[in-house]
Amino acid sequence: MKFTAQQIADILDGDIVGNPDAEVDKLSKIEEGKAGSLTFLSNPKYTSYIYETEASICIVNKSFEKNQNLSTTLIKVEDSYEAFSKLLEVYNQIKLDKKGIETPSSISDSAKLGKEPYVGAFAYIGENVIIGDHVKIYPNVYIGDNVIIGDHVTIFAGSKIYSETQIGNHCTFHSGVIIGADGFGFSPSDKGEYSKIPQIGNVIIEDNVDIGAATTIDRATLGSTIIRKGVKLDNQIQIAHNVEIGEHTAIAAQTGVAGSTKIGKNCLIGGQVGIAGHIKIGDRVKIQAQTGVGRNIKDGEAIQGSPAFGYSDFNKSYVHFRNFPKIISRIDNIEKQLPKNENK
Asked: Quick one: pLDDT at residue 309?
């Protein structure tokens, strides 16, 4: 898909310096720009590259004034970084603006699809599914029976949405997401064997939730596993049965949350965090990467370590830990200088 400098300037309300008919069909870093690519300059330390780049079009701030000849066409805007971000958003919308139902795909006669759907090849939509308007379901997606999906939801290729799941509006699920698989529920017997506990609950995902690739969210044993509005989950996260994650909480990759734990709103949770089951984490909590959480956490706490303790206490203790060999050496020297008679 090609765009001219004039078309881009119209989108960004920018001024053209150079050829308005210059065309681009790809994006590039300014230092790697090639003919036919669009780039931008916002950081002053990269200014030298604008005189070297082969990019056909470059977005710059209105304050930029050249002091050498340029081969690239400029589009001058108030804030080049913000403008480039806006352009990426527009480009992404155009690129992902798919409509229609591809074949082969399997859609139950009892399923209801809203306005302007996109259903990719080899997708499966089960019995009594209700899908809202402008929903995009990419190839090889599975949607089980009785699932409800709101408006403007995008489900990328290979995701699996198990039965009874409820999804709000403006949600995005990246490839390989699995929603509603059984929770890890087994009952041990006196013989050391395990009996399966039926998982008959569901998963509820509210509006404006983004879920990264290969993240899994288990259905509840009873009731619901709940992901509140505005939650952002990174790739490869495990959310167990009956967990509840509060509004606008963000969790980084490879974090695991065990069953029945409640996480508050506006929390920030780093990568590779392990959170035990049946505990409560308050609002606005910050959990540093690789922390192990095994206790309740109050509102506003910042924690680190495994097992976790206060963030400030951890940093102070870590300084001493790094100096531990020196401390031991000092203690040994002090003991050598003490009188040998222990009574003294």
From this structure: 77
Helix (H, G, I), strand (E, B) or coil at 268: strand
Domain finish residue from 51, 79, 95: 95
Query: Catalytic amino acids?
Result: 241
Q: Are residues 200 and 64 in the same domain?
A: no
Could you tell me if 75 and 9 are in contact, meaning their C-beta atoms sit under 8 angstroms apart?
yes
Could you read off the pLDDT of 221-273 as tens digits, one per residue?
999 999 999 999 999 999 999 999 999 999 999 999 999 999 999 999 999 99
The whole-angstrom separation of Cα 335 and Cα 227 is 58
Low-confidence ranges of the chain (pLDDT < 70): 340-344
Per-residue pLDDT, 321: 85
Residue 130 is assigned to a structural domain of this protein: no
Q: Residue 97: its pLDDT value, please?
A: 86
Q: What distance in Å separates the CA atoms of residue 7 and residue 14, rounded to the nearest whole number? A: 10
Residues 303 and 172 grouped into a single domain: yes
Q: d(Cα 321, Cα 58) in Å, to the nearest integer? A: 51
Structure tokens at 99: 């409509």
Residue that the structure tokens 């984490």 belong to: 281
Q: What's the pTM value of the predicted model, to 2 decimals?
A: 0.82
DSSP 209-255: -EE-TT-EEEPPSSSEEEE-TT-EE-SS-EE-TT-EE-TT-EE-TT-
- On whether residue 232 sits in a domain, the answer given is yes
User: Distances from the Cα of 311 to the Cαs of 230, 254, 288, 320, in angstroms?
Assistant: 26, 21, 8, 15
Total domains, the chain: 2
Its domain, for residue 200, covers 159-313
Please state, in angstroms and as integers, the Cα–Cα distance from residue 62 to each residue in 14, 16, 106, following that order.
Answer: 9, 10, 53
- SS3 assignment, position 311: helix
Q: Do 164 and 268 share a domain, yes or no? A: yes
Q: Exposure pattern of 230-251 as b/e (b: 16+ CB <10 Å)?
A: bbebbbbbbbbbbbbbbbbbbb
**Statement to judge: residues 216 and 75 lie in one domain:** no
Number of other residues whose CB lies within 10 A of the CB of residue 199: 21
